[in-house]
């Protein structure tokens, strides 16, 4: 496997062990899957065999982004006026959207995954976690297997969240019968995927997360057995929490969702929740004490219209925070770069009257890199540093878009926003996207195949 010398980078965003900081006019050297060195005039030393040199003049080099919550299959229901949140109540929307999801077939899950991951890669994401909770009976059980296939095609570092729903609509869930599984079915397939795919070695490209969809749509034992399996196999746990369901959980179980999950054992340093916008300070404090992390998804706030997640309070309590795109049902793009910008701007919009100050712009970049890596339990990604995985992306800032901004690479993404794809994305030491092309792949063919799969579904 070739290594790369990125020569004379205008700026490299590194982690010095305490915070993100910047080094100017330095080289970055990779060797196989790892970063070997960052420094001056690295080309003057003896380089590993097959090292390829890239002129990186003008480039800002960033650690690859880590997406910690998504629903790839929803990519096939983007930009649909008939499914617009603003024209429907939540119950009406759920009643309309889930039957659509239940019609997807196996090829749809594969091609929607290719579509979502391709967009993520174009915008600097190098590790993606997907929460795949939709298992229509006619589509079979190999849907996550097809996602791993899609990730291998694109060269994406992929963490698969095997989700599922077990509570029938007749008992209070929003899930049609065609998408239900038993707890035994769900746990058995989680175990199968862990056995077949989970790799906990350094620079692993494949991992599995046990991820029942949400407490409001599953039986109690589903979560109890999920936690038992995850801890027995040493994998992470994930679910949706604090997105409007706490009053329902309280009515059913006599406690809100955070306490309910903790009682079931579905909390701790090996667990992370998506959203958490409705949680009070006592609940945030409990999560911080337990070590449970949160994947903040800022862009659904625009469509859902719910309150803005209190990231300053989460910071003050010491919660572990990552960022996620979320699925296309509530965010029509798979652009984590854009989410960094959205997350910061939303906090600035709602800062007045809040108890805690908005974190610095660079902190939002940290949520999308080191923060996301920590949620996924990875010590080998999320930073540009010697010995870390060579996951990074580069922006050539010699454009009119960046005049007046180049003095502060750390704040650029959060404050200014990046309005175009990266100039280069590298994953595990391999350049997978460069100069507007996926290396070794025909994007027009991928597009045509995805469109053909989408056409098989009747909406």
Automatic annotation (TrEMBL):
Pfam families: Amidohydro_1. Residues 60-432 form the Amidohydrolase-related domain. Coiled coil: none annotated. It comes from the Bacteria. Keywords: Hydrolase, Plasmid. The keyword Cell membrane does not apply. One of its GO terms (molecular function) is hydrolase activity, acting on carbon-nitrogen (but not peptide) bonds. PANTHER family: AMIDOHYDROLASE-RELATED DOMAIN-CONTAINING PROTEIN, AMINOHYDROLASE SSNA-RELATED. Belongs to the metallo-dependent hydrolases superfamily. ATZ/TRZ family. This is Hydrolase.
């Amino acid at each position: 496997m070739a290594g790369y010398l990125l020569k004379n980078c205008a700026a490299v965003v590194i982690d010095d062990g305490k915070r993100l900081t910047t080094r100017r006019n330095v080289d970055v050297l990779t060797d196989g899957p790892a970063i070997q060195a960052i420094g001056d005039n690295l080309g003057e030393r003896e380089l590993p065999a097959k090292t390829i040199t890239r002129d990186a003049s003008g480039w800002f080099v960033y650690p690859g982004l880590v997406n910690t919550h998504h629903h790839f299959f929803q990519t096939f229901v983007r930009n649909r006026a008939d499914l617009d949140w603003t024209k429907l109540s939540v119950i009406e929307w759920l009643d309309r959207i889930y039957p659509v999801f239940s019609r997807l077939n196996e090829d749809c899950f594969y091609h929607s995954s290719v579509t979502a991951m391709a967009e993520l890669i174009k915008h600097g994401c190098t590790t993606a976690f997907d929460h795949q909770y939709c298992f229509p009976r006619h589509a079979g059980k190999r849907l996550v297997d097809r996602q791993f296939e899609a990730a291998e095609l694109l060269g994406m570092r992929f963490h698969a969240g095997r989700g599922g729903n077990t509570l029938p609509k007749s008992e209070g869930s929003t899930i049609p019968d065609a998408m239900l599984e038993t707890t035994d079915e769900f746990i058995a397939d989680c175990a199968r995927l862990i056995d077949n795919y989970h790799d906990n070695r350094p620079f692993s490209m494949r991992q599995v997360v046990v991820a029942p969809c949400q407490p409001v749509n599953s039986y109690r034992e589903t979560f109890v057995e999920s936690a038992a399996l995850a801890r027995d196999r040493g994998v992470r746990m994930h679910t949706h929490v604090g997105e409007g369901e706490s009053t329902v959980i309280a009515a059913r179980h006599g406690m809100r969702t955070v306490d309910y999950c903790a009682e079931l054992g579905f909390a701790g340093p090996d667990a992370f929740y998506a959203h958490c916008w409705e949680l009070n300070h006592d609940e945030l404090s409990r999560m911080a004490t337990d070590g449970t992390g949160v994947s903040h998804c800022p862009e659904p706030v625009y469509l859902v219209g719910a309150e803005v997640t209190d990231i300053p309070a989460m910071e003050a309590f010491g919660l572990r925070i990552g960022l996620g795109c979320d699925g296309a049902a509530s965010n029509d793009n798979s652009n984590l770069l854009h989410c960094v910008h959205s997350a910061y701007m939303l906090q600035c919009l709602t800062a007045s009257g809040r108890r805690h100050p908005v974190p610095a712009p660079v902190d939002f970049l940290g949520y999308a890199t080191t923060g996301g890596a920590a949620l996924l339990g990875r010590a080998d990604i999320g930073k540009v540093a010697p010995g870390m995985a060579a996951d990074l992306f580069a922006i050539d800032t010699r454009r009119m878009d960046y005049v007046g901004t180049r003095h502060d690479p750390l704040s650029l993404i959060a404050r200014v926003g990046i309005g175009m794809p990266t100039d280069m994305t590298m994953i595990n030491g391999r350049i997978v996207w460069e100069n507007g092309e996926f290396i070794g792949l025909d994007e027009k063919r991928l597009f045509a195949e995805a469109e053909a799969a989408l056409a098989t579904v009747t909406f």
